[in-house]
Every structure is written in C-alpha cells, then in structure tokens.
Amino acid sequence: MFGSIAKTYYAEREKIDPSKIFVVSIMPCTAKKHEAYVHKIEGTNLREVDAVLTTRELARMFNELGLDFNTLPEKEFDSPLGIGSGAGAIFAATGGVMEAALRTAYEKVTGKELQNLDFEEVRGFEGLKEAKVTLGEAELNVAVVNGISSVKEVIDKIKSGEKVYHFVEVMTCKGGCIGGGGQPFGGINAKVKRKDSLYKEDLNLPIRKSHENPEIKEVYKNFLIKPLGDKSHKLLHTHYVDKRNI
To answer: What is the pTM of this model?
Structure first.
C-alpha cells in the first residue's frame, strides 16, 4: 500500500517524478520479495515496491555496520503516513487485523464510541479462533485462522453449511507476521514476547483506531476521496488470477 501511495499521492504533493522514487519495504515476510516484482501500479509501468529486505536481513546489516540503537537519538517519522495507530501495530499478530477492523466497524455501524477496544476473543495462538461479536443490533460470526494448516477446516465448515462467517482472517505463518519467514529466528517464546510487545504498544499509543489516524484521514480527504472508491480500490487492492489453466 505505501509504495503505491508514495508514487502517487506523495509524488503529486511534493511534485516529484514518481519514476525517481525508489521504495524499499522492510518486511517479516519472504513472499513479499516475489510480490514486489509482480505488482505494478495500475495503469503504469511502475512497481509499487522496488526492493524488499526482510527484518532478519536488515538486522544483519545493522550488526555488520555496528549500529547500536540505544545510542541513536529519538526522531519522529517523516510524513506522510508517519503516524501509527495501535490498530496498525497489532496487525502483525494473529487476530490483529480482525481486532483492528472490528474497532472501526463498531463505531461506523453503531455511530457510538467503542468503550472497550480489546477484543480478547480473537487473540491467542490457537489454530482456529471463533467468536460472536455484537455491533449494535447486528451479531457477527468471525473466525481467525492461525497458520495455513487450519485453512481447510474453515473452508470445509463453510462449504458444508456448518458455519456462516461474516469475516475470516487468515495468517499463513504461525502467530501472524511476528512468525514470518523473514523474521529473526526464534521459537514460541520469541513469538509470545513479540505479540506481547505489540499489544503493549497498542495500549500505550494515543491513537488506537485506524479510522482516527489523522494522516490516513488526510490521504483520503485530499487524494483517495473515500474507502472502496474508484481510486482507493485501484491503488490499495490486490487482485489474484487463477493461472492453473492458462
């Protein structure tokens, strides 16, 4: 997403030729390396992302350079999209995308402020987590899949009619992105520590809902216009094609 925004909204705002912008993404996911080479901004010949480094590769580079983060001065991130929310922080943990979406969905559906932002029922490392979530008068059945081995179970339940889900989150890697193939090596204890640190960050950030992030609001107001609109759909959504029969 950031790559497409950097080469459209940011380039337009700063009057920069988008072909002169080189986007490097730091990712916990090795699959992002492939995605960077196949995804282009619709209607252009520009790749959204020009290069991808995994977090493990970046950590190795830091070590080779002798960088000690404890000695570096604190600075603010650059704009645009330099402000993060708690909802964004927990995306990396299994159930985090679901929880972030529910925080926004509740307020958009009910028109009321959500008092308890913690959806504990979608957290944890179980292979499949199911929950009923009440949004005003509506009751949603949601499922969170942790690891690709549990995907078949959810699909079978949907196909058989045993379950009707309104929203399903699937994280291929166990634990979510915190357990991604490009992450520093570590077992379950490392994943638990990473998960706990994300929820701690969420709890301590001044903004904990995606739709309240002022920079996201600014991008929509001045450029994308509205969620699921033509421009946002074109720039932010990914489409996959079944190539087995091609």
So the answer is: 0.90
